[in-house]
Amino acid sequence: VLDAAEALFQAGGLPAASIEAIAARSGVAKSTIYRRWTNRATLLVELLVEIASKSAPVPEGKEAMAALRTELRLIGQSVNGPAGRLLASLASEAHHDPDVRTALLEQLIYPRTDATAKVIAQAQASGHIRPDVPPRLIVDMLVGPIFYRLLIQHEPVTERFVKQLFDEALEGLRPKRAARG
Amino acid sequence: VLDAAEALFQAGGLPAASIEAIAARSGVAKSTIYRRWTNRATLLVELLVEIASKSAPVPEGKEAMAALRTELRLIGQSVNGPAGRLLASLASEAHHDPDVRTALLEQLIYPRTDATAKVIAQAQASGHIRPDVPPRLIVDMLVGPIFYRLLIQHEPVTERFVKQLFDEALEGLRPKRAARG
After folding, report:
1. What's the CA gap between A59 and A67, in Å, rounded?
2. How far apart are CA B70 and CA B165, in angstroms?
3. Chain B residues lying within 8 Å of A86, measured CB to CB
4. Is A148 within 8 Å of B152 when comparing Cβ atoms?
């Protein structure tokens, strides 16, 4: 079902990925689809979560700062691919469809923000990031400029941009010398 | 004409602000409207530019750092009002309407980014911001997280958020002590 949804979205964007079309392409009955997903929004956001968890997983088992740098680099790459296109479409639809808005926040944005905030808290605990800055503010400082470029499209999200963003944002978040010594 | 467009948008969002409805409400003929604006997108973006230039003007005649701080505070306030709603609607429409996308970038985003980048260049010239960081990157670091919150709506844009964002972003952009001394 998700494969069918992905193929339809790739071919014709969100309008093409209706439950009817997904049912026809996957050979799964609409009633069966609705047993698994309450509505089209939850299905499409699950597809996005699946694509994003492959193209930009939250890195695990790494030192926190390396994990953060890797995560940001992968997010930067994946906004230029299918995950970025689907996120931009769903974010735009979320503006007039409360189901899409709820699904996007609850299935993707909140869990993902929590996961990244946890890595930031580890970096704070290990003394790499100042502990007085709220982790959620840091998440938005790091990913906000990337998604701003994705959603407004005024400038491309290049690898260089993401690297500079990470370096400059972290520059001010490093513990002060005085505090360390 | 712009007043009519604004009233219609406030009452019923973008769908309500059609050229037909704007013509009917303002008493100005459609042909006259089309002589002044090539399409609906340029008219609506001009309305947004007008609202934004009142609610969050680029501050002039101030010391650069104070100007930047004021600008960010006003942007933070105005995304919670009519300017924010109209920008979010147009950004979402820009995703499938190239006219809206072009109008939004050329009439609002590019000129505004240029204006803010100019103030940042002044702050770099006066030694308040490190001169090795591209001004446009700094613009996106400052406004990106605000517009990310506006467009995804996962967290409100509070005054406290904007203040912390400004302070933390600028922290790492300050010239190093060693370089000053």
Report:
1. 5
2. 13
3. none
4. no
CB contact under 8 A, B174 and A172: yes
Distance CA B133, CA A168 (A): 8
> Secondary structure of chain B in the HEC alphabet?
CHHHHHHHHHHHHHHHCCHHHHHHHHCCCHHHHHHHCCCHHHHHHHHHHHHHHHHCCCCCCCCHHHHHHHHHHHHHHHCCCHHHHHHHHHHHHHCCCHHHHHHHHHHHHHHHHHHHHHHHHHHHHCCCCCCCCCHHHHHHHHHHHHHHHHHHCCCCCCHHHHHHHHHHHHHHHCCCHHHHC
Residues 6+ apart with CB under 8 A from A151: A88, A91, A92, B91, B147, B148, B151
B181 confidence band (pLDDT: 50, 70, 90): very low
- CA B72 – CA B162 distance, rounded (Å): 7
Interface contact flag, B91 A151, Cβ < 8 Å: yes
Q: Could A141 and B146 be called an inter-chain contact, meaning their C-beta atoms sit closer than 8 Å?
A: no
For B90-144, what is each residue's pLDDT tens digit? 999 998 899 999 999 999 999 999 999 999 999 999 999 989 999 999 999 999 9
Q: How far apart, in whole angstroms, are the C-alpha atoms of residue A118 and residue B51?
A: 39
Q: CA B89 to CA B92: how far, in whole Å?
A: 5
The reported pLDDT for the residue numbered B174 is: 75
Q: Which two tokens stand for residue A143?
A: 């990913």
Distance CA B136, CA B115 (A): 10
Q: Which of B137, B155, B173 sits opposite A161 (nearest CB)?
A: B137
Residue A18 CB coordination number (10 Å)? 14
Structure tokens at A45: 């956001």
Q: What is the DSSP letter of A133?
A: S
